[in-house]
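QA checklist item 7 of 12: single-chain prediction sanity check.
[x] sequence parsed
[x] length recorded as 635
[x] structure emitted
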Amino acid sequence: MASVEDQYQKAWQLSQDETSDSTTEPYKSKYAAREIFEELKSRLSKQLDEDDVEDEESAFVEEGVDGVGLVRARMAAVVYHLGVIAVETEELSTGEEHLNKALVIIGDDGGITSGISSLDVSDAEVASVALSGDTESLLSVSSDASSISPTAIAPPTIALAISSHNQLGILWSNRGIYAKAKCHLDRANAFYAEYIKRCSKAPRTIQSLFTATGDKNGGGPDDTAGWAALEKLHTLTFYYLAQVYGHLGAAERSAWYCHSTLQRQLASKDYEPLEWAINAATLAQFYQGKEKFRVARHLLASSSKVLAGVEVEVDMSQLDADDTTNKREKFEQCRADVARYWGRYCLALLQVSCDRINDTHQELQQQQEQQDQEEDLDKQLEFVQLEVSDLESEVAASTVKEFEEARGVFLCGLRWMTVGRQYYTLEDHASDHVTLTQEMSQLYKALAFFEPAEDRRCKMHKRRVDLLTVLIKELNPQYYLHVCRQINYELGETYSAMLDDKLAQVASGGQPTPPQARKINTLATSSIQHFLHYLDSLKDNVTGEQPAVYPEDSIRPALVAWFHLGRLWSKLVANDHHTKLQNLAQSLQNYKRLVDYCDQHPECQDVMAQEVAVCREMVQLLPLKMEQVRALTRC
């Protein structure tokens, strides 16, 4: 008969091997492992019943600690594995029962008595709580209120204790009971802290409990494998806590745990570089959304630094052709994604700068004081293992005020977005390509805000038109209706902005010359056409008319489009009074349409307060102006 050690190794390897599984038998290897673990459980149970078991395991009991003994620790490990297999094969209640039992065996009764258990609550109640989010109604005592047993944090059992609570955290998270998941993960966190505080001896890994009898002490304080395994388990606890806090709506706390996870992975050098780079770049989006640009820039620079090391490895790869191609493809996609995040960082920095440009002096002073305080916090969030000052120096981390400063941020953003578009082509990645192009357009728009000269500002808007026009010609509205709406709307706004710049140039020189008049009319007509294309896309497919009630997400855009149309028709330069009357009539019609809609739907008054006020005034003034034009016609 095979030894306990050999039997365990066979079962453990089967539980990790999925190569023999198929679509018809997806859990074949895990079920095979479960059978062996069940046999091993029975075998260990008999050993526990023998009278001489204490003598056998006396050498395993930690000096000065009321340890649980080798056979009992092995039993807990086997039960733990049965729990993990049950969770992985979607038998959650069985998995929970096994994991809780493993904790009881090692003396952590307090870890399962706090909060709720599906053993005490029906599945229907658990599902109801998950849907409602009212987890507090089923929670009793917080997990950290329970005392920590010395036997649970002894070197032979600390890995088991943390692993069991981590798995229970995953289990309850999958059920949607995130507060309960947090209880288990907090306890795993507390176990780690207590072990570091109380014990200097290297912990045992779960697998080392089943090594040969002569090696059962698992080495001394210099046993780095045990410490490395413990640190990895603690990193996993942080990783799961980041996700749970995200589900609980604690975004700041979630971000902190995400950052700590990345920091710990770097320190241990135990991470997959492409995954790490993407996670760091994704976390940067959160901090830039909070306007913490220094932290966001550091995360992006760190991401690029790690990617640079991967690129060298890919170039020097001696793998066969298929493996090299696959690795290169993953790298190229990762590099494109990080480039996109860099581009979004630059865009967000410029947009926030635009918003702040008109702030009062007092507000700016308060922002500066807040920024100085945040710099101290930012330093705590640096990855000391990486030297990224060269990458950080390429782009600003604070809001800009002058055109040249804005231009530097713009050029960096444009360069990164161009890198992203080289991978995300329109032919192969249409949606991503469209998004990137729209973001490039917004980048030009943000730069134009800082440009004082109308003619140069107009050229920047023209570049936006060129980018977006290519898209609208290539996209089929049948499949990309929402995107085509967005692009037509933005093109309408862009031509309108160009019209404003052209009118400002004309105003300084009196009446427009014929070439200027033609340019004004071209810009106004182009803007009108694109706003009409947008509104046409909202029409009812059956009646071909505008909807009586616009969808909630389209109310303001649609009404603003009517507002623009009223204004644009009035800006057209007419050569005769008859044409001018027609233009004014069109302007009046569009203004009235907006007023009528808001009168019929009073809830829109707040959403369109400024525009409605202007429209009501124009509805009064335009008929008078039209009468004046008619009078001139009669004369």
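[x] summary fact logged: DSSP finds 24 helices and no strands in the chain.
[ ] second reviewer sign-off
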